[in-house]
Amino acid sequence: MTATQEPGVRQQPSSSAATGVTMTLIQAVTEAIRGELASDERVVVFGEDVGARGGVFLATAGLQAEFGSKRVFDTPLSEAAIVGAAVGMAVRGLRPIAEIQFADYIGPGFDQLASQAAKLRYRSGGQFTCPLVIRTPSGGGVKGGHHHSQSPEAYYCHTPGLKVVMPSTPYDAAGLLRAASRGDDPVMFFEPKRLYRAAKGEVPTEDYVVELGKAAIRQEGSDISLIGYGGVMPDVLKAAEALAGEGVSAEVIDLRSLVPWDRDTVLTSVAKTGRAVLVSESPRIGNFMGEVASVVQEEVFDSLLAPVIQVAGFDTPYPYVQDRIYLPGPTRIVRAAVKALTY
User: Can you give the pLDDT at residue 316?
Assistant: First the structure.
């Protein structure tokens, strides 16, 4: 598999295989939502200011004018109401795509997600499903301070019945969002806000999906596995480039999907390289990458040449002024890689 291939339902097409348009990540999100609204009349989009304004980051800009205020509409400033309405709509046959303005603010709707959406299929013996998507900007790097910069995905990874996704490229954002919207389970769709306009790439104009639970190998390597997801991926790739300058061949894996996550791709890579550095920006305690580390050490312990090392955010509220120190960057990732290589 080359660095440009995608191991999901559909391989990322080359320019000769399909017509593509260069987009930012947020433009890809918009186009994916537009396509779902156009192709399925059951899809409805709502949240705080998502209508006429198009959302705080303009992810839904223009959609209300195109599809009308009954399918794209504003809600009260109540996360509990947004999630609760989404659950009710999903049970009644609609396919809601709800926006929570910032991931930091999902808290008031947590009970609806953990106690209702996540359990509905199980408690009804499969008689009901809950096909909804909760989209939300997540993570730091945009000077949002401690109320607009958190990465709370681990809370939802710990809740059986929820699927959890975090793309890092425009291609993945569109493909994963389509897959999430067309499935029959509730999906938490975290969007790394620092990549909204920084991440650019070619997105096919034809319809495609990226299967949830399939990682992407961004770069093949033989000496060490660098594994991350979401907003940290540009820094992981920069770290791999820096290591290459020192003669180190790093394999770079983008998980893309946390629940389910691609155990096979990760375990195959680490068994090959013998070393792993796991990168995320959420706080270290309870970090989802701790689960990845546990599985790696249980399944391929005999192949490890060094302990699995995590590079994460710190166990503090997100700092406004010192976010560059808080966020994992290429320097911290390279330092961890050197430690693993010289163990």
Answer: 87
Compute the distance between CA of residue 245 and CA of residue 125 in angstroms, rounded to an integer: 55
Has 158 been annotated as catalytic?
no
Q: pLDDT value at position 222?
A: 98
Outline where DSSP puts E strands in 102-220. Answer: 133-138, 163-165, 187-192, 200-204, 216-219
The pair phi, psi for residue 327, each rounded to 5°, is: -75, 140
CB of 204 within 8 A of CB of 23? no
Tell me the pTM.
Answer: 0.93
**Residue carrying structure tokens 């910069």:** 149
Strand partners, 200: 24
State in Å, rounded, how far the first CA of the chain is from the last one. 29
**Positions in the chain whose pLDDT score sits under 70:** 1-18, 320
Question: What pLDDT does residue 323 have?
Answer: 79
Q: Are 167 and 191 in contact (CB under 8 A)?
A: yes
Please state which CATH number belongs to domain 216-341.
Answer: 3.40.50.920
Q: What is the pLDDT of residue 317?
A: 83
CA 311 to CA 332: how far, in whole Å? 7
Are 273 and 341 in contact by the 8 Å Cβ rule? The answer is no
Predicted pLDDT of residue 18 = 59
Calpha distance 191→174 (Å, rounded): 11
- Provide the token pair at 28: 């890809």
What is the CATH superfamily name and number for domain 21-204? Thiamin diphosphate (ThDP)-binding fold, Pyr/PP domains (3.40.50.970)
pLDDT at 147: 85
| Kind of pairing between the strands at 276-283 and 309-313 | parallel
Residue 253: beta bridge partners? 217, 227
Which alpha helices (H) appear in 170-278, and where do they start and end?
170-182, 233-244, 263-273
Catalytic residue chosen out of the listed positions 146, 147, 148, 158: 148
Query: Cα separation of 325 and 16, whole Å?
Result: 42
